[in-house]
Every structure is written in C-alpha cells, then in structure tokens.
UniProtKB/TrEMBL annotation, chains A, B:
Broad enzyme group: hydrolase
Residue ranges annotated for the Succinylglutamate desuccinylase/Aspartoacylase catalytic domain, each copy included: 10-196
Name of protein: N-acyl-aromatic-L-amino acid amidohydrolase
Cofactor(s) required, per the database record: Zn(2+)
HAMAP family: Aspartoacylase
Keyword Cytoplasm in record: yes
Amino acid sequence: MEQTSFPPMSRVAICGGTHGNELTGVYVVREMQKQKVDKLGSASVTAVLANPRATDVCRRYIEKDLNRCFTDALLRSPITDSTPYELRRAQELNAQLGPKGSEEAVDLLIDLHNTTANMGLCLIFYSLDWITLHIYKYIQSKMTNVPVRAIQLDVPMSDAYSLESVGKHGFAIEVGPQPNGVLRADIFNAVKSAVDLTLTWLQEFSSGCTFEGGEVEAYTFAKHVDYPRDPAGEITAAVHPELQDKDFKLLRSGDPVFLMFSGETVTHEGEELYPFFVNECAYYEKNIAFQLARRTTFTLPSICLGN
Amino acid sequence: MEQTSFPPMSRVAICGGTHGNELTGVYVVREMQKQKVDKLGSASVTAVLANPRATDVCRRYIEKDLNRCFTDALLRSPITDSTPYELRRAQELNAQLGPKGSEEAVDLLIDLHNTTANMGLCLIFYSLDWITLHIYKYIQSKMTNVPVRAIQLDVPMSDAYSLESVGKHGFAIEVGPQPNGVLRADIFNAVKSAVDLTLTWLQEFSSGCTFEGGEVEAYTFAKHVDYPRDPAGEITAAVHPELQDKDFKLLRSGDPVFLMFSGETVTHEGEELYPFFVNECAYYEKNIAFQLARRTTFTLPSICLGN
C-alpha cells in the first residue's frame, strides 16, 4: 500500500464528563485543567468538562443523554423554552469544538467514558479513518497492562450521535469495569496513559515521523440483545454467570447468555459473534443486555505529515 | 456456657430496594412477591419493597437516604408538608413492620443491600444478639462459594438508623462488588441462598432443633477515613490500587491507602485495622473513602426454642 499524507493537526480537544457519573473522564479533565495543559508543541489542547450539570449531581444526564445529541438534525434543531439542557449544551459544544463537518472543527476530539462491563480499554469510532486507526495501533503497542481494542459503529456521519463526531477525527475511549459514581486508580491511570500516548503520537506525527502501515483488528457492531422481559416490561433474567465479565470472548451457538430468575438458562443461537457492553448499567433503559460484533482485520497504509 | 432459650419467631420480613439502585434486593423481593412466598411453617413471611419511588427511577433515594431515617427521634417526628418522602416512608414501614422496640414488631427483619466494594457477603448488625449471630454462623457454615462475614456497628438501639432496627431481631445483608443499577446473577444467587438459609434456620429453630454454641468472628467498626481533598472540597486522590478490592485484608502501618492525582502515595499510619466499604460509591457524598474495623471473636451459647 502507498504512503498516505495528512495535513497538520493543530487543535485537539480532550473531553470528559459527557456522562456525569463516569468519573475517570471527569477527573482526567479536571486534572488537565488544574495543570493548565493547553499546548502540545505548536498544537493547542483544550480539556472540556462536557456536561457540568450532570457531573455536579453525579448522574448520567439531567434531561436527555448528551451523547445522543450530536446528529446533524439535533444540532440544527431550534432552541425553545422546552429544549432539554443537554441539547442546548450539545449546540454549545458544537459551536466551541465544531461545527461538526466544517473546516473550523478541532482536528482531533477524544471523549472519555466508563462502562460497568469488563471491556478493558476500547477505542470506539464511526467510519474507517487512518489517523485514528494509527493512534489505536500505537496505543495498543505501548500499553501492556490492560487489553486495548477497537470497536467500529456502523453509522453514517450525519447520524453519528456522540460528541467525538464533532471533531475532524475523533474517538471515544471507553474503559471498564468501573461502577458509575466510583473512581478507580487503576482505570484512571490507564486512561491517563492512553491520553498521554495519543498526545505523544500527535507530537511525533507533527515532527515529521512516518508511521508504518500494518494490520489491526477491530470489532464491528452487528446487533443488540435485550433482556428477557415479562408482559409488563420487567426483566425476568440476569446475564448468565458464564457470559458476565466475558466481553470479547467468542459466543458460540448453545453458550449460556441469560439465567432466568426461575432458574432456567437461555442460550445463544445462530452466528458466532463477540459480545461487548455485557451488563452495562446505562443500557438497561435502552433495552440492551449486551451487544454483538464481528471481528475484522484492517490493513493500514503508512502515514506521514503532508499538506 | 449454658443453653439459652428464645420465644418462637412467628413473623419475618425480607426487605429490598431500601436503596433503589441496589438491584439484588429489588429483584429478590419482587421474585418472592411473584411466587407469593408468605408462609414458612407456622410463621408468616412478608417481602417488602422498601423505597418504591427510588426503585422506579433507579436512584439510591429521592430526597433523603431512607436507611438513615429509623432513629427513634426521626420515627417520632411530626409529618408536615415539607417532610421528605423517605421520612414519610420510614414511618409507614415502622407502622407496618414495627413499631420499633415494641412487642408488635416483626420477630426478624432482613434488609438486602449491595455495595460497590469487594466485601463478599456481610451481615451487618447493631448490638450483640444470639439469634442473629447463630443465623450468621449457620449461613457461614453452609455457603462455600462466597466469603461470609459479620460487621458490628457500635450504635445504641435508639440511634440505630437503618431499617433492620425496626424488627425485634434484624440484620442487613450487604453484598458486593456490584455496581449500582446493575444486577449480577452470581450476587443474586448468593443473596437468594443467604435468605433461603435464614428461612431454613428459622424452620429448624421452630421445629425444636438446638443450635450448638461455639465461636464466631465479627468485625467491629472503629473509624471512617475520608479522601484527601482540596480547599474547595474536591477529592485529590483515588483509593490506592493496593487497597482497592482488598476489603478485610489487614492494613498495617505504612501500607498505601491513596494514590494522589499528582502521583504521590499516602500511607496508613497507626493501629493495624481491617478496611471495609473500600471505595463504596454512595459514601463519596458521606465523606468516607473506607471504614476500618477491629476483628473480635464472640463465644455463643447453645440456643433452642423456649417461651
């Protein structure tokens, strides 16, 4: 594959607290603000607490999930007296860090998240993007104490609903397991390392380094699975102990997925797929017990700075 | 030690959802209600969802922590328009299951809780009580897949603030680690086993079995430790990775307890004590990073049914 060149990356945003009860991002961003981190060589770095009101009360959101507000349609919707706080905040963030899809948008936007699922450290991204896949490859090669994986969502950019879609390049860093409202030192350190490695990669890229191509693996979203429920909508089972904490372990036909409160086991049927977001707290209300993915290998070109 | 006899236990209450985001108790109680469990030999069993409004919105509480509302003073306080929901609910529960300290109170009240700390299964009780210590000894002897411990709080009964103090005998079952808002099958099964073993013990007691005396160990509360904080009250450290998940592992002078965001380690100084509730989510707002206890051995008399 040929070497591909990319223009300079001069503006970077590190965001946390998009969900106010996911504390790693809240404290990484606050520490960056306290340390007044704002420069990286010739590039500017901005640390942003995305949902300060939800952070103050340690909840995911006040009125509406902020990280579902960044579609083109919602970013363009008129503000009225009844507009939820998070939609106003999304439009503010889009004005500050975007506008999404424009030349004025920050070059790289990283949004820091936690999950209650045993997912290790995952980079979540929308479309294929050589810059972000190279950063992923770099982080994966340098971090040894936590598994580093990538998840690709299959959503067109106009429908991309989360904050990182506002940058020219962007990804979420999703790390777990950590309960909402709890800060674990091991996970704080892992996320801080991933952010520091990203900034180091950008410095090396800006100083003219070439990053060799190669192969990376990513998990591409296939489908959601909901909990078994009774006619009133109440769940009637928990994730099976053999699936709990087994994110990214291939699920084969016949493997247990739910343990009914009545004692029976429900098994997976059909295509072999990789589970992730297994028993994520915030997804009970979204009717998702776990998600399933296919594993794909991507071949990357070498990249370097160009114009 | 002599054999001690106790009057029959004819009314039992199993409560859950006192904290609406601690899901094990919510689902164990709902399942008992669905299965219409209401009899145990000649005894009555009542399954009670203690804080239904907080459970509906999956929060610890709506206005005030329900499990701090059962002191004599609060149970006697007059209800006005500005009385918080949870204090009204505490007085309702006291009328239904108590009144606390009276002959009409249920004989045994068990309240089901979860913690984000790695505490296994703990029975938490106020004063020394041969009945509850015998139930603890019985559960501990039968459960092999999870550590079973007892914690004694040093609070006089009039100031006892939590729901289980309403029963003639009572304890909380506190199980973790489980994130708030998440239901784990392994923890659901452990709590269900502990409840079933308690009911089996009661049946054996009612049918005239003598329970042999012996020794049990319990952890008696010594003190709280708060997070390091800056002048604005913001935490400036996380629980150290060497203490995280190490509940009930003896903490010696010089052992790490906090990792400052700036990188330094804070150590434990002074008396050797046993940590518990290490990094419990709900205790951030109560200014508690972990609690410390002494380990004590109690010698129990044999007990049997009397009048």
